[in-house]
Each structure stands twice: as structure tokens, then as C-alpha cells.
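Researcher: First entry.
Model:
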Amino acid sequence: MNRQFLTDQDAEAAFDWLHDHANAVAQARAERIYVEEFRKSRKAMLMKEHPNLSVAAQEREAYADPRYIEHLEAIKAAVFNDERLRFLREDKHARIDAWRSASANSRVRV
């Protein structure tokens, strides 16, 4: 039985997707890292608004602030987008690997 699961066109489409989405994947990763790191700055800025409170109370106020919670939503969105693109990229790599294996196997049988 000589059944090839992925065609050359499937592999080419996977290569094209990887090429065409490289900037989007990089941007999603950069955005994720930025919002994750900015969380610390956001917390510090919010804590700074309460100079007369203890550090623990400043931290409580920062965590309860709607702007901090809004930022957590931004982190959630950035992580989702980064992970979605990572899984899609892994899917394309898996398709290319499967095509490569199938191609090698078909050459051996010839």
C-alpha cells in the first residue's frame, strides 16, 4: 500500500504559512513578553499612588485597582494569541516532518 498522507502541495502550503506568518508570530511573542513584564511596572505605578500606606496595603490597592485588572485581561489576550500561533506553527512543522518522512520512505521503495 503506497499511501502518501501529505502531498507536496500540503508541504508547500505549510512552508508558505510559516513564511507568511513569521512577523505575526514574532509580534505575538513580543506583545506577550511586553505585557507580562509591564505588569510589574503597572503594579509599581499603582502602589506609588498610595505613599502613605504600608507596602502591603499599597500592594493590596494595586492588585484591586481596575487598571491592574484591565492589564491582566491584556495579558490573557496576549498569551492566548501567542499560544494560538505557537500551536499553529507546531502544526505546520509536524506536517512538514510527516511529508519529509513520507517522501523519504517513497524514495527508499523506488
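Researcher: Second entry.
Model:
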Amino acid sequence: MHLFEFVFALVAMVLLFKLVSRAMHQRRVAPRDDAVNAELVQRLGQVEERVRVLERIVTDERFDLKQQFKDLEA
């Protein structure tokens, strides 16, 4: 498994876990107010930006070249 596939799978599993836990939690708790919703939207934006940065790093040609050099050293 390549690093990109591992990172993608890890991010997907974390997001899926958060979605499931949030859905289960919302069934037990009353609806949240606008301030909490705004904070959650902001945090989601931060997570999306972090995923974009990870994708950029992993798909960068220099990253692939560095990984090849590391593989040769091992």
C-alpha cells in the first residue's frame, strides 16, 4: 500500500467515524444552537484544508522522488 492510499484510507475512516458518532449523538441530544453550528462549520473547513494540503504533499513529484530514495536506503 502506498503512502497516499494509506493517508486517504486513514482520513476516510476518521471522517466516517465522526459522521457516525455525530449521527448517533444527535439522536440523543436536542438540536444545537447557531453558535455551535458555526464553530462546527469552521472546524470542517479546517479539516478540508488539511486534507487538501496532505493530498498536495503526497501527489508532489518531489515527494515521490524522496520516497524512492528512502526505499533505496532500506
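Model: Note on the second entry: The helical segments are 3-28, 34-59, 61-73.
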